[in-house]
Design goal:
The protein has 2 helices and 22 strands. It has about 280 residues and is mainly beta. It has a 4-stranded antiparallel beta sheet with strand order 2-3-4-5, with no helix packed on it.
Length: about 280
């Protein structure tokens, strides 16, 4: 399943992907694994994104369309059967508080509301293709790609964010105090309004290529990059590297559970990648 659904991701998950040195976490028991491929109704085997709609059903973005699993079969949306989907290659998904599903495709952004898909019109000028998507606690929608970070302003109008460390936006996360963090190819910055402030991040992470962010419930921020993971909480920062089990690969996603990303014992931990 991991090769199908998480082909380009490395997940750092506490219970299944992380153990503490000298005291392994007990494996999860009583679960089964289902494998979904094109033979089972997926439009294509490369699943690049996952989301869950308010009705509880999973949505899967692939290179050949958007698939909804209704509990027994896949319903597939493509450019051919859903005109509002401007490109069948769906790269990122976001479910928002109002029940909408945002889709970042190779040709721009789309939004599904009340079952209807509406895509960006090329006449609007700025087509945000292959954009990471995020929503803050106020319901504001952000889209970031190689061209920068943009705030949605209704319709298909977007306002650019200034003072990014680098234009290539990789990820976003909001911590438990409401501070919004943006990951770029040259470090992390804090978003305030329509401007980013790089000096809010620890000096040791400034200029660091950051490709993944995760804010845990303990108020900490996890940063992923090429062959390393950083954890920052208050004035403490720790770097995990190969000696801790982080493989020599680019970390593109970090996920935690109810206990966070890492349960430490004796102040040490080791990562076990899920491949």
């Amino acid at each position: 399943m991991y090769r199908v659904v998480f082909r380009s991701f490395m997940l750092l998950i506490c219970a299944t992907a992380l153990w503490c040195r000298g005291a392994p976490v007990e494996p999860i028991r009583g679960y089964t694994v289902d494998v979904w491929k094109s033979d089972h109704g997926l439009p294509q085997n490369t699943a690049s994104s996952l989301a869950q709609s308010p009705d509880g059903f999973p949505w899967i973005g692939t290179q050949a369309g958007l698939a909804r699993f209704n509990g027994s079969a896949f319903e597939v949306l493509t450019r051919q059967n859903s005109p509002g989907l401007i490109d069948s290659e769906v790269r990122h998904l976001l479910t928002t508080h109002d029940g909408s599903i945002w889709m970042s495709t190779g040709g721009g952004l789309c939004r599904m509301s009340s079952g209807k898909v509406v895509g960006q019109d090329s006449a609007t000028g700025l087509l945000l293709s292959d954009a990471v998507l995020s929503e803050d606690h106020q319901g504001q929608i952000y889209a970031g790609n190689r061209s920068g970070l943009f705030l949605w302003q209704k319709g298909w109008n977007f306002s650019p964010v200034a003072a990014l460390p680098d234009k290539h936006v990789r990820a976003m996360a909001e911590d438990n105090t409401g501070r919004i963090w943006v990951a770029t190819d040259k470090g992390v910055c804090e978003l305030r309004g329509l401007q980013c402030f790089a000096d809010s991040a620890p000096r040791s992470t400034q200029g660091l290529e950051t490709t993944a962010l995760y804010a845990d419930r303990q108020g900490g921020l996890w940063l992923g990059g090429a062959g390393h993971v950083w954890y920052w909480n208050d004035n403490t920062i720790h770097r995990f590297t190969a000696s801790d089990g982080v493989p020599n690969a680019t970390v593109t996603a970090i996920i935690g559970d109810d206990h966070g990303v890492c349960q430490r014992r004796n102040k040490t931990a080791a990562f076990r990648p899920v491949l």
